[in-house]
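Suppose you are handed only these lines of text.
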Amino acid sequence: MDVEKKIQSLREELQQHNYNYYVLDKPQISDYEFDMKLKELQELEEKYPEFQDENSPTRRVGGAVTKNFETVVHDHRMYSLSNSYSKEELEDWEKRIRKIVEGKVQYVCELKYDGASISLTYENGRLKKAVTRGDGFQGDDVTNNVRTIRSVPLKLKGDYPEKFDIRGEIILPYEGFAKMNAERVEIGEEPYANPRNTASGSLKLQDSAEVSKRPLECLLYSIVGNNTGITTQYEGLEKAREWGFKVPEESELKDSIEEVLKYINYWDEHRHDLPYETDGVVVKVNNIHQQEELGHTAKSPRWAMAYKFKAEQESTKLKKITYQVGRTGAITPVANLEPVQLAGTVVKRASLHNADQIEKLDVREGDTVFVEKGGEIIPKIVGVDFAKRDPDSEPTQYATHCPECNTELVRNEGEAQHYCPNTNGCPPQITGRIQHYISRKAMDIEGLGGETVALLVNADLIGNYADLYTLKKEDVLPLERMADKSAENLINGIEKSKEVPFERVLFALGIRYVGETVAKKLAKHFKNIDALMAASEEELINLDEIGERIAWSVVDFFKNEENRENVQRLREYGVQLEISAEKLANQTDKLEGNTFVISGVFEKVSRNDLKKLIEDNGGKVSSSISSKTNYLVAGENMGPSKLAKAEKLGTNIISEDDFLAMVN
Ligand code: AMP
Ligand code: ZN
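From them, the structure of the protein bound to zinc ion can be written out as follows.
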């Protein structure tokens, strides 16, 4: 088959699978098969850059960096919505409608998705532009970022109009939000406050590759444009669905305001069953002619009305403020409440975040407080009922000492959280660190779980992760629910962890801010733990993508006598503290500091081997030529646009042989 056709057919196939997965939620092939096809397409596109396409499924992974988001004037203004909070207000709205339009009026009820509004422009079925709402007249061009959101179609299906805008909301479903936060907490970062702010913040990230990793979704609700051929709102939703957009199925057509109210009541009660946050219902006059007759006020259409759900809020008594200590020593204040029913669950505890938050709200023990449930799993306190405050109450004094080990707490400049600095003597930190060490992404010790770790610590059998390697079967057998077989598995699992590669060991050590990716980078650069331990802060900061905070944290970790001792013990037990000889044999830093772009077909090595050679020798591979590119390795049939760009920028253009001479 000719290459162009092959590329086209792979793109179409991937588009369809992408649609099945992200819009319909009904995948038909495995993730693995999908990845293989994507990889095949990627390779073809790299080899034949003349067929590149900004809307290819390969662009979903991002890569483009936007330094300044360009301001774009909306072709059609993005209005806001009038709000209502009661049955009466909705009935008044209907009366106003009746005065202007004659005949039957139908209403479309939709959920009001709580995220960041977006306007997408399509031309000839292809995504042209994605612009934030801004002030309604003009917004920011965030196309590079929106292109990475898998439920935004890059190419449409069916009989779409030549040019139109479609409006929707970019949201972050609860599940993805919780996962993102779990990952942040794991590396010692503070969790994000709520899905909506995180979604809108994501649109303004400079690096689209970062956006691509976030589980964002785009839900659409309105088609705007001239000559779209659409005559009702409901038809618009159906058409949008046919063209490949994700339009929630909860939207319904209603014949009267009574019916509308039933819909509202139903969702007021059931909205917590939805996978994402909603803050109300939007009611729209269905017929577009009637909409035109009704027109707009200065700020919002007269043909639409938002009905806002009441915030899920309850008031209850705050009995006591306690403090929790995390694995990294971070202190979280917790409000212990008189149990109260909220959004279908009984709430007994709520997060108070940090000292500033307590001061800002002026919460005190004994207060009656307002509790709200947002996107977080733990509800939060949003205010105090001052009328009910005991006149004798005193402002809250934030804890000065660790509740677990009584060490004086510290708070570093610029940080919101207090910390217990007694890293190696504070029980929850000890347990938490060992639990992190054995976790799946770290040492992945089979046969040993978090609860067993807690039991082992409590029984004084272990006090740090190095102690794991001294455990014998007889030691663990007396533990609760420990059968002979499980004791054996546990010991075997620990033994096997000695084979885990250095980069994962480095992550397992639990150095603050050193997540999986940073650990990989450090392992690759320093190759063994001794070199890393000897590195100064300046040396670390000079590495790509290692900031001040990480550098400080690494140095601080190895300054600690007990940490050094643990490392020494791990070494004696045979844990991998250097990159394996095999990996090392192929690695140099000959190409350190150089960025390469590969283009065309090569004779002696495959493109993938070429890439690997560059990376193994310390160089970086980039997919597009910029002023940062040092070398363009040019093969046969190189794309003319790449060549032109390289010539314009004065990039060194070298052949396959030139390159091989550089590394051999
Ligand atoms: P407000 O920000 O309160 O003026 O409400 C208007 C915003 O609600 C719009 O800008 C949209 O981003 C958002 N919205 C969420 N769901 C819908 C929907 N189904 N129809 C219209 N707007 C919606
Ligand atoms: Zn402590």
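What can we learn from it? The mean pLDDT is 90. The pocket of zinc ion (ligand 2) is lined by residues 325, 402, 404-405, 407, 420, 422, 426 (CB under 6 Å).
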